[in-house]
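Q: Here's a chain of 551 amino acids. Please give me its 3D structure as C-alpha cells.
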Amino acid sequence: MERDESNYAGGGFFSFFSGRRRRRIDPLPEKIQTFFVEHPVGDPEPQAVAGVEPRAEVEKDPVVHTTPVDLEPSADMRLLEMQRNALALRTEIPVPEKAPESSPPEPPTPAAAGEAIAGGLDYAYHDPLTLIPNRRALEERLSDALALARRYDSNVGLVFIDVDNFKQVNDTRGHMIGDAVLMEIARRMKQAARHGEIVGRFGGDEFAAVYPTVTSSQELADAANRMLQVFEQPIIISGMSFGLSASIGVVMAPGDGETEKELFEHVDAAMYRAKSLGKSGVCWYSFEIDDELRTREEFLTRLNEPSIFGELFLAFQPMYDVATDEIVAAEALLRWQHPRRGLLNAQQIIDVVGVLPTPIEQWVIAKAIAHAAEWAQAGAPLRVSVNVSDFGPQASLSLLEALEAGKVDPSWFNVEIAEQHFARERDQVLTFARSCANAKVGVSLDKFSGGVSIAELRQLPIGSLKLSAALTHELRADEKARSIVAATTHLAQSFGFDVIGTGIERGDEYARLRSMGVRIIQGYAKGLPATASDFTAWLLSATGDAPSHCA
C-alpha cells in the first residue's frame, strides 16, 4: 500500500541452517542385500537388485522444462476423461512385506523405504487430476516413514510447495487451463523426484514431498531446490505462457517435530515465511517462525474485524518539484495505532501479513479521496497518490466508482504499483493500469530498482517512475546505482514520463538526483509524513513551512 522509504526485497533462495541441532545419524551398513527400485505404473514389476552400495541411486534424465503442453479446450476435456479412465484400470504396485518382529530387518535404503510405504494406486490415495498421491496418501506415508525412522534412528524430510499467484491463472484463463497447468507442474515434480521420494498434491495449488530417509540437511536442501527448479521454465498451455514460481517450506524430523501434525504445521509456517520474504524461495522451519506465525495470525484476525478502522489513520508526505521547490503531490501512507505494539506503518504490516486485506486497501483509497475532495473545495487542489496491491477484475471499477462518489476529478488521483507486483502479476497489472489510464487516473511504477526491462516499460501506461529508496541511498557509494539512475532518467524523458526520487534523507542525495535530471523528489530531507489534519492545515496556510511532526 505504501513505500514509506523502505526497500522490499523479493525473490531468491532462502535457507536457514545455522544453529540447527540435528540428531546424529548412524551410518548405514556397508551393503544392503536387496531393495526394490520404484518404477512408474505400467512398467514391469520391480526387480530385486543385489549388492547395492548404501544410498546408491539410479540416475534419472535431467528435468526437461521446455516441453510445451499445447491443449485446446476440447482436447483438455478428452485428456482429463482419458486420465480418469486410465486411473480406474491401473493395478497396484506390490508392497514388500516387513520382516517378522523376531528377526530385525536391516535399515532401509531410500529406495526401499519409499517402496515400503508406497500405497496402492486408487481413487482413495491418488489425485484424480494429476494422478499423483493425494493428501491422505501423503499423510499416511509420512506416518509410516516416521515409524521406520524411529525404529532405525534415522531422519525424515518433508517439503511443502505452494504455487505463487496460481489463482490468477484460474481467474484470467479459466479452470480448464488451470487444471492443465497443475497437471504439467505435477509431471515436472514427479520427474524431478528421485527413487524413494514421494511427491503428491496436497490440495488446490499445494504440493508436498516426503523423503523417508535423509542423511543430512544438505541432502534435503538439494531436494527442495530441485522442486524450486521445476518452475524455472515457463509452462506453455494452448500457446499461452505462464511464468510461475513457488514458495517452499522444509522440515526434517525429529529435529523439527516428531508427529505428522507437528511437521505439517511447521512446514506450513516455513512456507508462509518464504512467501513473506518475497516468494520464489525455500525456507527452513525455525522456532522463531512460530512467533512470526502467531503474530501473523494475530494481525490478520484484527485487520479483518470491523472495529479495526478505529485504529487506522492516514498520514501524507509531500512531493516537490526540484526546479520550483513547489509541492506537486502527496502520498497517502497508512498508519496503525496498535494497542500493544504502538504505531506501525504500512510496510511493517505488510512484512507480517504479506498483503493488506482488500477492505483495508479500499478504506485507504476512500479516505484519500475524501481528503483530496476537501482540499479541492478549499481552493488548494493537490494530486493524491496511493499505493495499491489489488489488481483483480473489479479493482479499477471500484476505484472509479469511489472517485465518482467522492466527486474527485480522476486526474487529481494517482495509483502507485510496486515493481515487484508488475514482475509477478504482469497481465493483471497491465489490465488494471490501462483501465486507470483510460479513465485519466495517474499511474506510477513504484520501488523501481532496474528489474523491469525497457520493452516492459514501454507497455506500461505510466506517467511517472519512482526510484526505490535503497537505490537512492546507494548513489554516493555505488557506481552501478548511479548508472541505473542516470540511464533510467534519460529513458523516462524519452518516453515522456517523470522520474521521482524517494527516500531523500541527506542534502547530497537531493543534489545528486537533481544533477541527474530527476524532476520530483520525496523524502525526510524535504518533508516529513504528517497526519491528515496537520498536512491540511499546512497546505491551506500561506507560510509554506512543511509540517515538523512525523506521523
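Q: Can you summarize the key feature?
A: Residues 1-120 have pLDDT under 50 and may be disordered.
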